[in-house]
Amino acid sequence: MNGKKLLAGTAVLAVAGVCVSSAVRDDSLAPPPVADQGPVRLVAFDSCDNAVTELRRAMAPYVTAYGLGGGPTMFAEGMAADSGGVVQKSVPDARAATPPEQQQEHSTTNVHEQGVDEPDVVKTDGKRVVSIADGKLRLVDVASRTVTGTVDLGERRASQLLVSGDRALVVTEGPVPMLKPTLPPDRPSYAPESGTELVLVDLKALKEISSLKTDGFYVDARQIGGTARVVVRSQPRLPWVYPDQTTNEAGSLRRNKEILQNEPVTSWLPRYELNENGAKSSGTLVDCANVSHPVVHSGASMLTVLTFELSGQLGTGRPVSIVADGDTVYGTDRSLYIADDHRLLPQLPSRTPVQRPISTAIHQFDIGQAGPPKHVASGEVNGTLLNQYSLSEHDGVLRVATTTGTETRCCWRMPADVQPPQPPSESFVTTLRRDGGQLAKVGQVGGLGKGERIYSVRFIGKMGYVVTFRQTDPLYTLDLADPAKPRVTGELKITGFSAYLHPAGDGKLIGVGQEATEQGRTTGTQVSLFDVANPASPQRLAQYHLPNSSSEAQFDPHAFLFWPQDGTLVIPVSSYKANHDFSSLVLRVDGNRLRDSGNIVEPASANNYGGPRRTIVIGDQLWSISAAGVQVNARNGLAQQAWLPFTR
């Protein structure tokens, strides 16, 4: 940021109508100087004419004969370049169901911040377990151990779930961008056809109440009480042409430039279709004058935060939008942060490599009051995030862990063997504090894992823990008590790495990841117990290694269960054997040791469904949920007590 003042634009409530620009094509419009990043300063468009003019200008440098960026081969959404770490999507809260006449102790899903729920494939409210799998929402009654209801979601691909009382909000997503055969077969369109549909379900009546479709990609969601906030990212819908037997690249490029200058502002704004109790409506989700944007942007994506009170109707979600990309969401009880590392920026139409420093923009929204969030500040840090655990707010200070370096954005025809070498990577922890509309840098510590990248991060109170990896695994301990002077206090080098770190109390950490050889070749799932009570000298107390296996908990922390009352630790594992066995590995943290308690294996009839994905504690039982059904085992000894298959 280099001391540049960041001015906060006010993102206000959007309405379903839209102000349509009367602007006509202006061939004299010159594109602005190409800049991949700049001051993160949000300002609002003052009119629809101003909006479409600015959006055209911002997109102009990226227009090619094949539409936006690149050439005839483009990646589907979500297939971005390697960001230097395990991609991790958040998922939510699953509280074990309990008999109404006798409340049993039960576990909750592993969420980042206490009191801030996150969507997942399993949720409970203490009386029932709610799950989604193979296009169906199912309810399981814990007291009777029976499946009591099913809601068929049809062809929609349900991916995540939030629950409040007798309401469930189901996130369904369309497929990744598909080749659309509207042009000659040898020149298909690469227009994204996917979208997000939010479905509100009445769990008592077992029926769908309403649904809201948007043409954006689902990013993530958070829930506090009965209020859910959903972040979606949309892209402009422009009818690009492509070279074919009758049009060469020069002609296609010329036509695409004309298309850009003729498209109305509605082509950039996300659309919606709402179905509430059979009444249908559709339109533009936001008004162009109610959209904020950074001073420098590509005009290629828009982030929208939707707010829903799950006890009522969906409506259009009272949207708040900014012109930006984003793929990481982190939330506290008062703030929602959306981070954009610019990796979704369109590829520049160049035949020579362009190197640029990598940076991440961070936008802070105030969610402390009822209603839609309000954008309050933005900032920027060097490098890229691993996932939401790279962000943590403590005492008004945002701590951010990033890996820096540069990336090469290059011509799509350049052979891989002539790509310029990448400079060594390095990781940092930067502290930011809100100053007016700016997330201003307070302090920074670097030098973490030079030549490596971050594999896991955990901030606990005034301490931070960062794991980097290339051949060995340095676990760094950081003292963040003075945000202006964060410092590394200790380092532990061992083979392998931890992809997820979890606090275990009494100055201990649990790490889940992979063991590896001294040359860095991974060899199977590894669970480590660390002693970090003395930050100057972190130690590994115990290790469990399951060769030739992996665990979903490495990239999705919601697959991780730790029950501190007796030290029960459960993660799903998949072996690399010929039959690809699936099971839940049960360990017990016993003082300074990790004890193997055995595995939970589903009946042979369920082997084709991928095995258990979530395990929850209910009283003295472990409930394991998969796409095939629910299995109940004794917590001590793991004896099977029930198997509840899901009917197809």
Account of the 3D structure:
The chain has 648 residues and is mainly beta. Among the domains are: 385-411 and 423-432 and 442-492; 495-647, 7 Propeller (Methylamine Dehydrogenase, Chain H), CATH 2.130.10. The chain has two helices and 45 strands. A hairpin with a 7-residue loop joins strand 22 (359-366) and strand 23 (374-382). The longest helix is centred in the middle third of the chain and has 14 residues, at 249-262. It starts with 41 loop residues before the first strand and ends with a strand. InterPro entries: Beta_propeller_containing, Quino_amine_DH_bsu.
Quaternary arrangement of the chains shown? single chain
The spatial strand order of the largest sheet comes to 1-16-18-17-13-12
Structural class: mainly beta
* Largest beta-sheet details: 6 strands, mixed
Mean pLDDT across residues: 83
Shape descriptor: globular
- Give the beta-strand count: 45
Pfam family, one: Beta_propel
InterPro entries: Beta_propeller_containing, Quino_amine_DH_bsu
Protein name: Beta propeller domain-containing protein
Biased composition (Polar residues): 100-112
